[in-house]
Amino acid sequence: MTIDPLIESISVNKIFGGWHKQYSHHSKTVNANMRFAIFLPPQANNGKKVPVLYWLSGLTCTDENFMQKAGALRIAAELGIAIVSPDTSPRGEEVADDNSYDLGQGAGFYLNASQAPWSRHYQMYDYVVKELPAIIEATFPVSDKRAISGHSMGGHGALTIGLLNAERYRSMSAFSPICNPIKVPWGKKAFSAYLGKDQASWYQHDASELMRIAKQFIPAKVDQGGADDFLKEQLKPETLEAAAKMSGYPLELTIHEGYDHSYYFISSFIEAHLRFHAEHLER
Amino acid sequence: MTIDPLIESISVNKIFGGWHKQYSHHSKTVNANMRFAIFLPPQANNGKKVPVLYWLSGLTCTDENFMQKAGALRIAAELGIAIVSPDTSPRGEEVADDNSYDLGQGAGFYLNASQAPWSRHYQMYDYVVKELPAIIEATFPVSDKRAISGHSMGGHGALTIGLLNAERYRSMSAFSPICNPIKVPWGKKAFSAYLGKDQASWYQHDASELMRIAKQFIPAKVDQGGADDFLKEQLKPETLEAAAKMSGYPLELTIHEGYDHSYYFISSFIEAHLRFHAEHLER
Question: Do A268 and B227 touch (CB under 8 A)?
């Protein structure tokens, strides 16, 4: 892959002795501009290469939600981990869209669309797995030690990408992931549009289906709020847990009573996720 | 003061074992609806009375910015401190407004306006000092141990309110406060509109003027980013420091190199502020 060196700085903020930076760049993969944010911990200030956690956000989010609301950067600064947060889809007037919040811009579902009009720009799987890490590793003082995490639609993204690329990530985790998209309204709507009616191609983007037949394992941690309004209809962590039992997958899944689907939940448990990833990134 | 018991719940979220709650209520003081958020730490879950930190936000903010972006609730949960964050002004169609971001709705400046059309609703000083604490203390399991803090316009609010009400607050702190509003563009514009051209009434809303002649002291902590775009023209911490020297005021003021005016700065140092307040609230 050729790396386009023209990444444009949008903002720079000092935080916890490190730096939060936002960039825009033309992505060849999605054939449009993409925005991402990176946190570089103080350990990287003198050019030392640090490992990277990729964070995939949920429906309607941008690169900003996690960086501003999760309270993660304090811990990443302590542990010496960079965090990269891409936008959830390409955006712009030329990019296909839909009036609903769960399809089109802000709802890329971290897959490669095969159906018109989506296939022209919605190639978020290749963007997150290939182009973005190549740019990050060529541009910033980071190593090729990677972990991946995300929330809701981004939890689905983190788990499916981790399961399909066990050799590229040391560990994976998710908050409130869509565990079985081929069976729930959010997933059926998005996969029908992006991948078409033939469900054969849907299975490789379903964390439960992938975990059930997995042969290569990486450590996996999932946290879910027990008072999440989307728990029963959209998320289905019990399906993921059953799949892990089938394959013997090393999954730590915890339901937290009283917590909902928001960043108030994520912020309460992000420290445990970062420490989990640090343990595997240090090896 | 009679307390209106009709406060309406807007949202409830569990976070760090405690609860973040938003409310709307009709304020008799500002003669309009006001919104506020409260964080109740886990120590309050069984009705134990906890002390309260009042947080005053900056221009354009609502009750949400601090609660979502500062990373404060983790530490407040550990220390057993409630946090109350009011909106920065009354809002609504009936409330006077201005097209600029630094006057009118979202820019109440924590004073009692004497000039039309502002005086009808912009009574934020009395709201924050009297009505809001009375409602909080009558409604939630909190004690009358209070501290006050804020950012930018809210830092101005916290310092002026703390200086004028030393008997009501155990401690005060601020991030990037407008330290000398009578001398800077933000302050001159707001005070001219709300208080009128006669500058005699301006002095009691200027932290530097109040600190210079203060006789009753409460511990005060101020942090300021050295790379803050507003530092020289609008904030003037050097004036506050000089005032503290004049009166012998117990002010800890620190300039942090490289940090700007954003919540990335606040989140980096909020833990130290909460521990500072906890020390004085525990007495």
Answer: no
